[in-house]
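Handout, page 2. Input:
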Amino acid sequence: MNQREMLELTEWRRLVAEMYTKVRDSSAQNPRKAWEEYRSTRTSLFATHPQSPPDRGQRMSFNGLPYFSYNPAWRIQARILPLEERGLDAGLVDLTLDLPEGKLTCRPFARVVFDPPDSPGAPNQSGPAALTLYWLEGYGGGLFLPYQRCDKWT
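Output:
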């Protein structure tokens, strides 16, 4: 990575951090507007910034990422618990992701615990859900919260 690219990456990270700060600050007063601001800012960054994940050709025709429609029921408040608390790290292993740039190691970092919203027509009866939060060992660090869609919480 040359110096210009390093500065662009620094700017990308700053702009993303500012986007999240702004959304966090405004979401308590107007969650829908905060969601719309997040989408708009993210679309602009992906479409125009040189450090955007899409390559230059893809950015020229980029119209935005697909999102589900806004649903206030899916505004979830979560707790982040360190793995050391109550043995939450039992059975967790590092993830290794194969990327074009090489392998990326993700280390279990914490558990994100939340109450899932009710499904349409069926109230939540399964209790709290939890996801593992990982620390990215490369690319300057960061957090990764993988999840997958499921029809019912287990």
